[in-house]
# Entry
Amino acid sequence: MVRLPGCDGGGETTVLAHYSLAGISGRGYKSPDALGAWCCFPCHQKVDGAEKSEYTRDQLRLALAEGVFRTQVEMSR
Ligand SMILES: [Zn+2]
# Structure
């Protein structure tokens, strides 16, 4: 659902990637699953910062936020 270039479309590697948000998550507080996006391994590596990408932090946060929106729509169907 995050759909960065290099996205493998998920399948076996899909995990719920949580969006960090001030006031919701932080030290000792994990984001709730409601702020999760179904995310494949290649996308997760980038939005987590585990792998360098050509995107800025803001671009990666936007991609993850859009992934959360898409996931919420899918889950509400
Ligand atoms: Zn992906």
